[in-house]
Design a protein that fits this description.
Elements: E1 2-4, E2 27-28, E3 67-68, H1 88-107, E4 120-121, E5 131-132, H2 134-147, H3 157-167, H4 181-193, H5 201-213, H6 242-254, H7 262-273, H8 303-307, H9 329-341, H10 349-360, H11 375-388, E6 393-395, E7 401-403, H12 404-415, H13 434-448, E8 457-459
Antiparallel strand pairs: 1-8, 2-3, 4-5, 6-7
Helix pairs in contact: 1-12, 1-13, 2-3, 2-4, 2-13, 4-5, 4-6, 6-7, 6-9, 7-9, 9-10, 9-11, 11-13, 12-13
């Protein structure tokens, strides 16, 4: 039996608590009927930035009748090997990999305290809107240093990095003002959440509020039947996608927001619409394998369909091919994690279907559906999703049990460079840059080394029945 464990952090773990609600498997005793504001109709016209003709409509996905509290976040790796369910050999190997990786990361920190300060990229829906990415990468690298215990804001690499990040703060609370503002701001919030210093508390909280304010919802005239509802994109003007939505939810979770908050529940609608699951998704493109695509907005897009030569929207799919858009690994783990953040229970059909997809496509050799593309993003997303779910082993559909932590450690050991860094030979989404790939690898290792408790909720190792 594979154990699915939303549970509290050990006493030694530094964490942000959900106030008095941090109890294993606890339910927020607030039924859906008492939360009508989540799906209330908008009171303003549709925002002019949205092309109304491209939006598709489906019935809103079901909200949870009761919200299950996930385990609270924590921001440090375990201090003792007995806190992590891996062998002594893997504990030692992971720490060697981690120290070499952190050294390689520090070697790449620039004079301004930043990583990739001169780098830029463009949103997937605005290829001409190239924007700087240095603040986001610096935030990710800062989080990696903080989770290994480096929190000094007086001097040293974290202090320099935080000063660089805070210089990018805007008057409205966001970070950077380009086409990537949501992505950048969310990564900053998650980085600052792990720093126990009052100096970063106010910028972090204002940035969190900015994320909530800029979610696509009724305040922009978007109603619950529209495929933009509840999502977040790269910036305040872009169409929403699951990658940015899950990063926004990570930030909210890391700040200790309750999953019963309307922002989480609105996001759950968007996440559910990105799943290939006919029981809860009425979109024309939706299949039924339980996996996730890149975005349901504007009729749906999948990077896996593009990778397969069928076009990102499925526009080049052969007539003989199965209908719909293809699921893939990184987005399926992102969807699984996001559903846990939003309080879905282990027996919800959406959670079970995603878990089945993960078992069916279990691997660390590639990002399933995309090959080597986005491999280190995949490693980080897998590790964070399974750590949030408090999984110890995953039993695939052939009945083989996998200790995911040990297999991840082995996969990263095979790919580490002589200087301690990691690099993706497939240059997609900036992973050919060692600073970014190394940051993702270090963050993935740290998720594998965070403490695990012994209690939880079981997901049985048989495919879930479909209604």
């Amino acid at each position: 039996m594979t154990t699915f464990r939303p549970s509290p952090a050990p006493r030694r773990a530094l964490r942000v608590g959900f106030l008095a609600m941090c109890i294993t498997g606890a339910l927020v005793a607030q039924p859906t009927a008492s939360r009508p504001s989540v799906y209330d109709p908008p009171t303003t016209p549709l925002d002019a930035r949205i092309e109304a003709a491209r939006i598709t409509r489906t019935d809103p996905p079901p909200l949870p009748e009761q919200v299950v509290l996930p385990m609270p976040p924590w921001f440090r790796i375990a201090s003792r090997p007995e806190e992590v369910p891996i062998s002594a050999e893997h504990w030692a190997r992971a720490h060697v990999l981690l120290e070499r990786g952190l050294t390689a990361l520090l070697d790449r920190q620039g004079a301004q305290g930043a990583w990739m300060a001169e780098a830029s990229t463009a949103p997937t829906d605005q290829p001409d809107a190239t924007s700087p990415i240095g603040v986001a990468v610096t935030a990710l690298a800062t989080k990696a240093l903080v989770q290994s215990g480096r929190t000094d804001l007086e001097s040293g690499p974290v202090a320099e990095a935080v000063r660089y990040i805070l210089r990018a703060r805007r008057d409205d609370g966001s970070f950077e003002a380009g086409a990537l503002s949501n992505y950048v701001t969310a990564t900053v919030v998650s980085a600052l959440a792990g720093i126990p210093d009052v100096a970063v508390a106010q910028p972090r909280e204002r940035a969190r509020l900015w994320l909530v304010e800029n979610q696509w919802d009724q305040s922009e005239g978007v109603d619950a039947g529209q495929d933009w509802f509840g999502g977040a994109g790269y910036g305040t003007h872009g169409r929403p996608d699951l990658s940015n939505t899950q990063i926004m939810l990570d930030a909210m979770y890391d700040c200790g927001m309750s999953p019963d908050e309307p922002a989480f529940q609105r996001a759950l609608a968007f996440v559910s619409r990105a799943q290939n699951l006919k029981a809860t998704n009425g979109a024309e493109w939706a299949g039924d394998d339980g996996g996730f695509i890149y975005t349901p907005a504007n009729g749906g897009e999948s990077m896996a369909s593009e990778y397969a030569g069928e076009g990102r929207h499925g526009e080049h799919r052969p007539e003989t091919a199965p209908p719909g858009l293809r699921s893939y690994g990184s987005m399926t783990y992102a969807g699984f994690k996001s559903m846990l953040h939003a309080g879905l229970s282990a027996d919800d059909v959406r959670v079970r279907a995603a878990f089945d997809w993960m078992r069916r496509h279990w691997t660390f050799d590639e990002n399933p559906g995309l090959g080597e593309q986005g491999l280190y993003y995949y490693y980080h997303t897998v590790a964070r999703a399974l750590a949030v779910g408090q999984q110890t082993t995953i039993t695939d559909l052939d009945g083989v049990a996998h200790n995911w932590r040990e297999e991840l450690i082995d996969a990263l050991a095979r790919r580490q460079q002589e200087d301690g860094s990691w690099v993706n030979g497939t240059d997609r989404w900036l992973e050919a840059n060692a600073a970014l790939a190394t940051t993702y690898a270090v963050l993935a290792l740290q998720e594998a080394l965070k403490p695990v408790t012994a209690t939880g909720i079981d997901i049985v190792d048989t495919p879930s029945p479909r209604p």
